[in-house]
Every structure is written in structure tokens, then in C-alpha cells.
Design goal:
This protein is of the alpha/beta class. The protein starts with a strand and ends in a 6-residue tail after the last helix.
Length: about 170
């Protein structure tokens, strides 16, 4: 029986405008707990993830919508990368800028154009997953941002991995 190698790349796009001030700590908690929860979920199902890389794209940091702060991918199997990732997440803070749709679209474009993991050359049984998780209150329901985040977090791992495991296009 061949072991399936799962490679997961995750890009977190985070709006750091003033509208996010009330929920930024919850977002940091979600981002930092995503990998352990994903790993626990797979372990419970007697499966494993051979590689996980994460990246952060911050937007609405300044009045210049062309300024997007984008990290490289952090390999969470590497202790030094893990420390750098944690440090970057913990240092995120909101600023006085208002939400700007152009900045949000540029952040999403950066995420889509990421240097995603390559397929394993010739390795049968490899599954790659590329995920973009986008955090913003934008102009929509600012008062409900925390509730929406908590609802997403409580169900996301099960729903996400169920979708991944039933997608036969990458096997």
C-alpha cells in the first residue's frame, strides 16, 4: 500500500485597516491554530500531511493601495520558518486607514500568483492543495465580523478536508 503524500499551501490575506481592529486578535488566533487543527484532523483520520507552507499578504496598511506586504512561504516543518511565521502573525496590527477595495483586489491577485508548490515529479499518490483564506470586514457587516470568523473556524477544517479528499482530479 502506497502512502499518499499531501502537500498543502495556504495563503492568508488579511485586511489590516481600522475596520478590522476589533477582530484582528481573533484572526491571529485562527491563523496560528489552523495548522495544528488541520494536522489533528488528519491524524484522527489516520492520514498525514507531508508538507505545509503558509504565506501572509497584508493589505490596507497605507493610503497607497499599491502597498501590499507579502511574505514568502514559510515551511511549517522547519523550526526557523515556524518561528518567523509566528513572529509575523503576532506583529500584525491595524492602522487608521479605511477599507479600500482596490487594495483588497491587489492582495487577492498576489495570493493567486503565489509560488505554489510543484507536483512531485513522477510520484504516484501525491495530492497538492492550494488554499487562499481572506479576512476582511470591508464595507459589509463590520459588527458581525467576529461572529462570522468563529462560525467559519468551527466548521472549516472538516468541510475543507472533506472537499479535498473527495476531489479525484488530483489523484
Amino acid at each position: 500500500m502506497t502512502s499518499i503524500r499531501r502537500k498543502v499551501d495556504v495563503v492568508f490575506c488579511v485586511d489590516v485597516s481600522m475596520s478590522m481592529q476589533n477582530c484582528l486578535n481573533d484572526i491571529k488566533g485562527f491563523i496560528l491554530s489552523f495548522w495544528p487543527e488541520l494536522e489533528e484532523h488528519y491524524s484522527y483520520r489516520h492520514k498525514n500531511i507531508s508538507s505545509i507552507r503558509v504565506k501572509i499578504v497584508l493589505f490596507n496598511e497605507s493610503n497607497d493601495d499599491s502597498k501590499i506586504r507579502e511574505s514568502g512561504f514559510y515551511d511549517l516543518n522547519c523550526v526557523e520558518d515556524m518561528k518567523g511565521f509566528i513572529s509575523q502573525v503576532e506583529s500584525m496590527s491595524s492602522n487608521r486607514n479605511i477599507y479600500d477595495m482596490n487594495s483588497a483586489l491587489k492582495a487577492l491577485s498576489c495570493a493567486i500568483q503565489s509560488n505554489w508548490s510543484e507536483p512531485n515529479n513522477g510520484f504516484v499518490g501525491s495530492i497538492r492543495r492550494h488554499v487562499i483564506i481572506f479576512f476582511t470586514c470591508g464595507a459589509s457587516d463590520r459588527n458581525n465580523g467576529i461572529v462570522q470568523l468563529q462560525e467559519f473556524q468551527s466548521n472549516s477544517i472538516d468541510r475543507l478536508t472533506d472537499l479535498w479528499e473527495h476531489d479525484s482530479s488530483t489523484h
